[in-house]
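Hi both,

Apologies for the delay on this - the queue was longer than expected. I finally got the zinc ion-bound model through. Below you'll find the protein sequence and the ligand SMILES exactly as submitted, and right after that the structure tokens for the full complex including the ligand.
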Amino acid sequence: MDKTYDHRLESKIYALWENAHAFEPQGDGEPYSILLPPPNANASLHAGHAMYVIEDILVRWKRMQGYKTVWIPGTDHAGYESQYVYEKHLAKQGKSRFDFDRETLYNDIFTFVRENSGLIEDQLKKLGFSLDWSRKTFMLDSHVVETVYKTFEKLAQDGLIYRDHYIVNYCPKCGTTFADLEVTYKDQQDPMYYIQYGPFVIATVRPETMYGDTAIAVHPADPRYSAWIGKSVEVEGPLGPTTLPIIADDEIDMAFGTGVMKVTPAHDPHDFALAKKHHLPVISVINTRGKIELSAVSNLSNTNARAETTSTVQNLSTADARKKVVEYYKEKGLLVKIDEKYTHRVAVCYKSGHLIEPLVLPNWFIKMKPLAEPAINAVRTGKVKFFPTRFESQYYEWLGKFIDWPISRQTVWGIRIPVWYSTTENPDLAITYLSKTGERITGTAQELLATTSLEEIAKGLQQLRAPITAKYVISSTKPSDEYLPETDTFDTWFSSGQWPLTTLKYPEGEDFKTFYPTAVLDTMWDILFFWVARMIMLGLYMTGEVPFKTVYLHSMVTDEKGQKMSKSKGNVINPIEIVDQFGADALRISLVAGSTPGNPIAMSREKVKGYRNFSNKLWNIARFFIMQQEKGLEESGDSSAIVETSAQIIEKTNTLITSVTKNLDRFRFSDAALELYDFIWNDFANTALEQAKEFMHQKETFEVFFETYLTCLKLLHPFMPFVTESIWQELGTAKLIDRTLLIQTAWPTQKRAKMIK
Ligand SMILES: [Zn+2]
């Protein structure tokens, strides 16, 4: 046995486990399963991933307890984030997504992601995670897509899918929507106009959107306006007098302008959210070309005078329309003042530099109430338990809002919504495609089909936008020649929300039958709503059973000073560097000891270093036993003092077994880790072993102490798997124990003190 423990041998130990198929479920015990929250396929490991050590502790412990245990890994396609990375890569070659048809772009991203995957898998292995790699799942595997399609079909059959407008970031120049992630912002100076609007003065930089106003909003606690709340007022709109309701909402900033806000749901994301909350109409006044289009408004206000005003702004650019509206209020004497030097942040297209226009476009929605109610009940009735319990109230609050879920994304990289539109039944489908000569062409189906074959359009298809009223067919394959596919993909949370179904191969898979519902879902609290709640809803909806019995919300990993890690702050710690320097075991236990669920835990080099010394301590105890055995053991020997010490250590070990097991049962990982550390270092090594040293040549004494040490290795194994297994193998080589794998040994139970004569 080497003099010191060398953590660089960890990879050999991992291979030993893998070759023994030790991570695959064994035996006929009660099933116990955990699903790893899927990291992005082309990502690399970050500090947060290291917290999944909680899951490894649980599965290693349950495996040793004789459960039929499995921990299933997988990776996410990460929708827009991956597409974004790929587009940056394209930009380096002077290209963009607009140079490709949809199918080609998808295939290219697929290849790119595949070429850049695998790193995270190696890194998870470096952390010692006992994941069953034979069961790994990728979010775009065909069986995953199949399940996602089935769920969508069932939702549609049950009337839970509908189409409606949703606000998106739209670039009129590029003719496409952008994800929040890729919108860039810049500060810009624009005039702020103060306009007399009924009894109020409102402040706006975009008077041209006033055609689409559907309410006036104030803060509920603003004393200036409290008497108006719930009433309606007549205001001078840009098309003449109109009546608007006055609503109150906490989100209104009392200090901004006059504290009164116009609500223009179709052209501002905040106003859109307000409209959904307060059930206001959404009236679009700017079209996808960035021009004023008042068809929706003129339908509402059908007088000659209005029609006349309407025609003067129809089809103007937003900038020109703004001038017209300002002129209108000036003439009416309603323009109170102009702040010429108002600076604000505007959203800009990263590609063209054009201003992003928030627009409402057709989208797919899921009705939430029928899904959320059973999910709320599941937690209320204890079918799903939260650790810590304080997160339950957040869960109820989010789900209880019943805000319908917009599930379509205008991206290529994802699972395409399995919907098809007949071009003959829907002549007004808005289509963008690449022609044979590579030219980007946009138009309605009717316009384009007058000159182009449907085959050419289908081949070069980039984007299709169907009106809300369009007729469609849900199908995983093309229904017939005259159909074009929906080009929107599912929100990534829609597919990852089915992770327990897809990884276990619902409904016919053996794993589904054995392991559903899974035991514990462990993740960070920040995706409680996005992911955890969605899995509970969709799991219950498809199977009638919850997908997991316990939700454990682990700590957020911070830097040594307790600051959130971020690239911009430059305080990001790469966990793999720490592993290379001090070993995975030391990192693992340092993230567990002293952490409480839901609260931050600092990743500190000093702390990790301290636990590296603990590995050495463990190693030295093993060397002591091996050397003692080499010196030879004597059969007899009787000393009342040592009998007492032995009895004490057996007693203490029994207490330790009970306590560690109980703490693990209650998800008190820190308590379990700390008591193990304290017992091994202080009670065992520094005290009992010191006291008994001179009697250790006696076989009886040696056996008692050695047995205690083996118990410690077993109890510590889930926390520090590499060093404990390395020692186990060394003890096997020294013939102190039979050659087995520690990972496969049984969890210790209490020993009686009968070993003492
Ligand atoms: Zn653009």
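Main takeaway for now: Confidence is low (pLDDT under 50) at residues 298-302.

I'll put the files on the shared drive as well.

H.
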